[in-house]
Amino acid sequence: PAPESFEDLDAWKAARELTNIVYGLARREPLARDFGVCDQLRRAAVSVMNNIAEGWESLRVAEKRQFYNWSRRSCG
Length: 76
Description:
Elements: H1 10-26, H2 35-57, H3 61-75
């Protein structure tokens, strides 16, 4: 069936799983002591989810692609 919302997209589900993994790793030593890296990793993971959701809501195809590209780059 066709997705009815961004939460139905496999990409968004994978991004949510990635975010959960990143948050879990950021709580573990020795990474937990590096607040700057932890913050950057968390923000990048959440950005993936947010950009997929924003792309879903965009009406223009070019805008959708732009948000999905930002999401992909946040994974890098």
